[in-house]
Amino acid sequence: MSVPPAVEVDGLVKRYGTTTAVDGLSVRVDSGAVTALLGPNGAGKTTTVETCEGFREPDTGRVRVLGLDPRRDSAELRPRVGVMLQEGAGLYPGAGARELLTHLGRLHRHPLDVDRLVERLGLGGTGRTPLRRLSGGQRQRVALAAALVGRPELVFLDEPTAGLDPHARHSTWDLIGELRGDGVSVVLTTHLIDEAEQLADHVVIIDHGRLVTEGSPEELTSGPGDDVISFGGPPRLDLSTLRAALPESADVREVTPGSYQVAGVVDPHLLATLTSWCATNDILAEGLQVGRRSLEDVYLELTRRSAR
């Protein structure tokens, strides 16, 4: 017997005046999995998630969350779904973290232990401090705790590690992994592509309100032509003669000043062509290495193509 999806979005359209924020988007979020929603600013991520959370009504299309309509059945969904907004948005700015989480926990039948949750997220020393006096990273952790305290079946996390230091970021990653291990479905929006690659079972990339591609990180970063050669050299090299010497299918670009990448089917001939070009132009290819494209490489390529 197949497990029903945690979230189903089918042909979603949402407009604001003459602007179409979401344009016929269809997405499925599997139960018990972490699904990352990626896209540039203005791609329609926030509108899509807010529609799933019941904050916005579709113009056309169908949205189901845990099999229910997020607006019509909001009262039934509220105790089953956790929502994390950025930096504590929507929470009481005058409340302390422990006071707030205790109050929220009392609204649920089987809440998590507040003391353990506070300590786990490194908030023990700020339990009585009003939210408005906390740092952005601390408010972010309170927002995460508020989304989790009711033991939700599904949780929406909006930029959960924005503003966190590396230690807190990795602690949050561990916590999200534990949620998945406990069978909680997670929808994650993030601008940190390495975060999506690390955490997600399924990645959905959207742009201009439309689906660009989707799949597991492994599926999106593997396949013919997905190898890369990376090397360093002087910044702003003229790559036109290198492009002319390589196969048409190869993509050559300066990723950051002085950091170069050749993507395509990497074979001995392509590697020899590259090193010969470097020798002819008196370029020492520093740190030259052959590897697989990262999810960030795929994301940048697809969203650039979508923009074009």
Automatic annotation (TrEMBL):
InterPro entries, per the entry: AAA+_ATPase, ABC_transporter-like_ATP-bd, ABC_transporter-like_CS, ABC_transporter_ATP-binding, P-loop_NTPase
Single GO MF annotation: ATP hydrolysis activity
Record's Gene3D superfamilies?
A: P-loop containing nucleotide triphosphate hydrolases
Domain ABC transporter positions: 7-233
Q: Which UniProt keywords apply?
A: Antibiotic resistance, ATP-binding, Cell membrane, Membrane, Nucleotide-binding, Translocase, Transport
Would I find Transferase among this entry's keywords? no
Q: Where in the cell is it found?
A: Cell membrane
Q: Where mainly located?
A: membrane
- This chain belongs to the protein called ABC-2 type transport system ATP-binding protein
Q: Which organism is it from?
A: Haloactinopolyspora alba
